[in-house]
Amino acid sequence: MDHIPTGALFGALAVLLILSALFSISETAMMALNRYRLKHLAQKGHRGARLAARLLANTDRLLGMILLGNNLVNMAAAALVTVITIRLFGDGELALSAATLLLTFVVLVFCEITPKVIAATHPEPIAFTASYALTPALRLMYPVVWFVNLFVGALLRLLRIRPAAEGPVRLSMEELRTLVLEAGHYIPPKHHTILLNLFELQDIRVDDVMVPRSQIEAVDLEAPLDTLKSQLATAYHTRLVVYSGHLDNVVGLLHARRVLNFVSDPTVSIEGLKPLIQPPYFVPSGTPLLTQLHQFQENHQRLGLVVDEYGELLGLVTVEDILEEIVGEFTTHSPLETSGYVPQEDGSFLVEGGTPLRELNRKLGYRFPTDGPRTLNGLILEHFQDIPEAGTSLKIVGQPMEIVQVQDRAIKRVKLYPPIRAPQRAEAPPRERRAVRSAN
């Protein structure tokens, strides 16, 4: 190289350093691409995205080509620095060591760290632009890359390491849920809520959303005919549970529209009503809502009677109950059902004892545990292991409340003070709950 001017050597060194920076910025940008957005843009016809997706389909070849080029230009740059140093300062150890340190600093700052930080910050425009150059470069260097990958594959087999198979990235339910949570600002609030509710559907049981046994609107076939007709004429629901003598002895379901003639015809008897009764559809207690939704779809049913392991009726669940867990309430409620809660002037709520804990947590912001009793009444009874008196004040998971009314061995109304916003241990065991009885 003695006949090459020193200025030309510096120019060649600058070109090599620029190429090293380009290889580094391309590598980081390609690896930092969001695969799902890349697939979306490629399907929409974005040419740069299509080229990038094609390159990333064979990551080993892409990385092999980039690393091969990067190492070649870095080694060539080191050789040029050595020639330039000897020409300007001689072959002294001090000069060569100083030149090596200087080149290392320049490569780290200008060819590695800075380009990679820029690429990680703006991966899409850089990767899509680089794809136009990397695609022909890969074709040109493919024989060399293939030859190098032979040794890489042999070394991996020697180390008993199997490379991950190329294919679409699969996400677990928890990972997908995290993805939806992270994308909260980019999804409309209503859609965001619906998606999160869908993820929770498998963890919610029919017992959590069913209409309790005491609130089921039902008719007794053994009742007097006039009473039966009056119940059918004033029924709030379109589908009624029919039983004989006792609610556990369910006969079937009756559609209100099919009994209009029965109600208005004074000559009919109860025997004429029986052919209109449809067979009951029973649902095992503890069935996940998502599973039950599929069961409703497969069996072409809209209403199921929830029974326990002994066959005793626990409640009633409908398709609408499950859909409300996804999209929120959209139907009216029967007068038989508890009114839930009534806000008070001091910020507290007057709550019916039969109100589900999940409803209080979701709508009012409380943090009651939901892994045990399902209603406020059940939670308080579990806490005391007895039926408390009206006027008793207590705290459960740090939330103060006061029992207002007790009737028929059940807590009918409770005054809940405003929810505590500080994080609470919602799953605290009963022994960690504190009770404070008011002085009488």
Please tell me about this protein's structure.
The chain is an alpha+beta fold. 50% of the residues lie in helices and 14% in strands. It is built from 15 helices and twelve strands. A five-stranded antiparallel β-sheet has the order 8-9-12-11-10, covered by helices on one side. Strands 1-7-6-5 form a four-stranded mixed β-sheet. A hairpin with a 5-residue loop joins strand 6 and strand 7 (313-318). Helix 1 runs antiparallel to helix 4 (59-89), helix 4 (59-89) packs antiparallel against helix 5 and helix 5 packs across helix 6 (123-158). The longest helix is centred in the N-terminal third of the chain and has 36 residues, at 123-158. It is elongated and about 120 Å long. Residues 423-440 have low confidence and may be disordered.
> Helices and strands, in N-to-C order?
HHHHHHHHHEEHEEHEHEEHEEHHEEE
Mean pLDDT: 83
Number of separate helices: 15
Shape: elongated
Secondary structure: helix percent: 40-55%
Largest sheet: 5 strands, antiparallel
Strand order of the largest sheet: 8-9-12-11-10
User: Which stretches are low in confidence, meaning pLDDT under 50 for 5 or more residues running?
Assistant: 423-440
Q: Find the structural class using helix and strand composition.
A: alpha+beta
Rounded to the nearest angstrom, the radius of gyration is: 36 Å
Number of beta strands:
12
Layout of secondary structure:
Elements: H1 6-32, H2 35-43, H3 47-56, H4 59-89, H5 93-121, H6 123-158, H7 173-182, H8 189-200, H9 206-209, E1 211-212, E2 218-220, H10 225-233, E3 239-244, E4 246-255, H11 260-264, E5 282-284, H12 289-299, E6 303-307, E7 313-318, H13 319-327, E8 341-343, E9 349-352, H14 357-364, H15 376-384, E10 393-396, E11 399-407, E12 410-416
Helix pairs in contact: 1-4, 1-5, 1-6, 2-3, 3-6, 4-5, 4-6, 5-6, 7-8
